[in-house]
Write a structure and sequence with these properties.
Blueprint: H1 2-10, H2 14-40, H3 43-71, E1 78-80, H4 82-105, H5 111-132, E2 134-136, E3 138-142, H6 144-167, H7 171-194, E4 196-200, H8 210-254, H9 264-281, E5 284-292, H10 295-302, H11 304-322, E6 326-332, E7 335-342, H12 345-360, E8 363-365, E9 368-370, E10 374-381, H13 388-402, E11 410-412, H14 417-434, E12 440-449, E13 455-466, E14 470-472, H15 474-484, H16 487-503, E15 510-514, H17 517-522, H18 525-536, E16 543-548, H19 549-553, H20 556-569, E17 572-578, H21 585-590, E18 595-598, H22 601-605, H23 610-625, E19 630-633, H24 638-647, E20 651-653, H25 696-699
Helix pairs in contact: 1-7, 2-3, 2-7, 2-8, 3-4, 3-5, 3-8, 4-5, 5-6, 5-7, 6-7, 10-11, 11-12, 13-14, 14-15, 16-18, 18-20
Length: about 700
């Protein structure tokens, strides 16, 4: 040990030797940084990083050796064999590469130690190959003990360095591994230099210029540091690329690429954070579950690209409504969610109402006005939920309960909803089997001329006689059918059954079938109507299809195109429930309807309300002005009939004439223009009110 220290202090220029140590420290640290990078990569990238690590390790040991040799002072002329010097560099780089491949293969438990030993042996081979190219004017003698000791030190410390570096991932482990590799290189070099003894011989040439040699040391050190800097820069760039990739992957995993909102996974993280914050700040949170109405039909009618744009617009509207007071997310398909802090229920109610109005506003895309609307279910924390899962489930349940109610699309959670929802699920299941079990029936209600009492036609109305619960109101099961898509097969069955019945009627009366908004926007109606008319033998001019203004306004351009195709078949088109929807005169001017049906709600107040009577007079004047007959629904008293007669209404339908029945009656009502008797009603049968004409809009269905 004393001999090694004496060799360092007495036979070297210490400040040049310090440069060698600095290069070695920088090189070993760079080597360990690149090694950790290599171990994280796969495939060809791993091989590339192994090569860079080998270059860094080889440059570290070779430059340390070369600069230290420059610092060595044998007091005789010296020279370097260029070939052996270059070969020594290649040896250490190649040997280090082999050692790294073995060390990281993990084929057996001791591969790290074995690979490290190979690296140590390659450093020793580099050292002694370089020494073979170190020519002096003198006699060189070697102490074999020091030579063997130097090789052992290099192998042992290199093996230990690799073992620590690859078995542990902490920062302190990297520092220890770097120190061990530094020890391996320096102990091998200086123990090897202690082994040499040079006996000077007579020489005539001058000893190398010290300034030139020291400049060479600086040049080698500079090149070495550039190599190390390049390696560390590559590592930094790759680390940034990896970080950006991870950020992008995290974004893809937690963000909806279509709308830019958090997706379901991102929503869960937001909700967890919000609940934690709410607990810390003792605040309340509302979770609003949102489901768009009729979005599937928009997709089917216009394609997914059009539907995607609708989703983007909806997302922007939700974000605009929130501002900085919450977080919105798209959970998938047409489902959205909103997390919002609130202080009192009134504030929350105002926001939810604004949000509902915003989502119900028509969307303009490529010149088309699309009316979507949405069902909103709201649950509050901690009032009605105590954790993430229950909050989500209860908000979803409230939203499902809002779905069937076509008038009110906002529903706040209450504990009784659970039983209601379960009962509803049972009814949906039973409804799926209703056609096959022959539980659905078509009833017919007469439509008569007000002036002559002549029968003009019959409207088909759907009834469901449940084997367990009896007659289920259409206002209960029709929304279920529309929501679940069952309205499509049910509506087709109704149209086919009604056409088949009408084809067998003794009189060629009109058959009116109401179209569901879902079916109108989803199916290829013209083709379906033509096929059913051909199958049943019903002449096209006897069929009249009814649809509401809302169904048309959801996609006005496509709706009018579909209506013209149906009209070309010879089928009549009636505008149903006029006065309750958009009541747009533009609709009447854009398409020549064959009939306007005045909503039954006007009849309820026509005898007492001046406003209802004025509206009736205006609609009748409008119909007469454009030569479209008007039919009034829900006529139940002779005084109502008298008002219609006085105002010039064309046709009427309601309990005053007949109740819906499975078998229509074809007897004329005769002259209806006689004196009226106030509130003189046709005798009522005991069937539930929901089955009557005044509920027709919610109870009828069609193709």
């Amino acid at each position: 040990m004393n001999a090694v220290v004496s060799c360092i202090t007495d036979s070297h220029i210490l400040w040049v030797l310090a440069i060698a140590v600095i290069v070695c420290v920088a090189g070993t640290w760079t080597t360990l940084v690149l090694l950790s990078q290599s171990d994280r990569e796969n495939g060809s990238q791993r091989l590339g990083w192994y090569f860079l690590t080998s270059v860094a390790a080889g440059a570290s040991s070779w430059c340390t050796h070369f600069i230290a040799m420059i610092a060595y002072t044998p007091n005789v002329p010296v020279s370097f064999d260029p070939i052996l010097t270059a070969v020594s560099l290649l040896i250490v780089i190649a040997g280090t590469n082999v050692g790294l491949l073995i060390a990281t293969s993990r084929a057996i438990p001791c591969t790290a130690t074995l690979g490290g030993g190979i690296i140590g042996a390659s450093i020793a081979a580099m050292h002694y190959t370089g020494m073979a190219g170190y020519h002096v004017v003198g006699i060189v003698e070697w102490n074999q003990s020091y030579v063997i000791a130097s090789v052992i030190l290099g192998v042992v410390f290199s093996a230990a360095a690799l073992e620590v570096a690859l078995r542990h991932e902490s920062g302190s482990s990297r520092q220890l591994a770097s120190a061990l590799l530094l020890t391996a290189i320096l102990s091998l070099h200086f123990t090897g230099m202690t082994a040499i003894r040079i006996t000077p011989m007579a020489f005539t040439e001058e000893i190398s210029d010290p300034a030139a040699v020291q400049a060479l040391a600086f040049a080698v050190a500079t090149v070495a540091l550039i190599v190390f800097g390049t390696g560390l820069t590559s590592h930094r760039i790759d680390a940034r690329a990896h970080s950006e990739s991870r950020r992008q992957l995290h974004k893809l995993a937690h963000c909806d690429t279509l709308t830019g909102l958090p997706n379901r996974a991102g929503f869960k993280d937001c909700l967890d954070h919000s609940l934690t914050l709410a607990d810390e700040e003792r605040r309340k949170i509302a979770l609003i579950s949102i489901d768009l109405d009729g979005f599937k039909e928009i997709n089917d009618a216009h394609g997914h690209r059009f539907g995607d744009e609708v989703l983007r617009v909806v997302a922007r509207r939700i974000e605009t409504s929130l501002g900085s007071d919450g977080q919105a997310a798209r959970l998938g398909g047409d489902e959205f969610a909103v997390i919002r802090y609130f202080d009192d229920r009134a504030e929350l109610g105002d926001y939810v109402q604004r949000l509902g109005d915003l989502l119900a506003a028509p969307i303009q895309i490529n010149g088309s006005d699309i009316a979507t609307g949405a069902s909103l279910g709201i649950c509050t924390y901690p009032d009605h939920a105590d954790c993430n899962e229950s909050l989500v489930n209860n908000a979803d349940l409230a939203m499902q309960c809002a779905k069937p109610d076509t008038a009110e699309k906002i529903s706040f959670y209450n504990p009784s909803m659970g039983e209601t929802h379960r009962s509803r699920r049972v009814l949906v299941t039973d409804l799926r089997r209703a056609i096959a079990n022959n539980e659905l029936k078509v009833h017919y209600q007469v439509q008569a001329s007000i002036t002559t009492g002549e029968i003009r036609g019959f409207e088909a109305l759907l009834r469901w006689n449940h084997p367990l619960y009896g007659n289920i109101p259409p206002s209960t099961f029709i929304p279920m059918a529309e929501e679940t898509g069952l309205i499509l097969p049910i509506g087709e069955w109704v149209l086919r059954q009604a056409c088949a019945d009408a084809a067998r009627w003794p009189l060629p009366c009109k058959l009116a079938v109401n179209l569901s908004q879902v079916q109108f926007t989803h199916a290829d109606l013209p083709k379906l109507v033509h096929e059913i008319l051909w199958e049943t033998g019903l002449p096209a001019h006897r069929l009249e299809l009814e649809l509401t203004e809302t169904a048309i306004m959801q996609d006005r351009g496509r709706a009018l195109h579909t209506l013209r195709r149906i009209r070309n078949i010879g089928v009549s088109i009636a505008l149903d429930d006029f006065g309750t929807g958009y009541s747009s005169l533009e609709i009447l001017s854009a398409f020549p309807f064959d009939k306007i049906k005045l909503d039954c709600s006007f009849m309820a107040n026509i005898e007492t309300s001046r406003q209802s009577k004025a509206i009736l007079r205006a609609i009748l004047a409008l119909g007469h002005g454009i030569d479209i007959p008007v039919l009034a629904e829900g006529v139940e008293t002779r005084s109502q009939l008298a008002i219609l007669q006085a105002e010039g209404c064309d046709e009427a339908q309601g309990y005053l004439f007949a109740r819906p029945a499975a078998t229509p009656v074809f007897e004329s009502f005769g002259d209806l223009t006689g004196p009226a008797q106030d509130n003189e009603n046709v005798p009522m049968d005991p069937s539930p009110p929901d089955s009557g004409a005044h509920q027709k809009r919610r109870t009828s269905t069609g193709a």
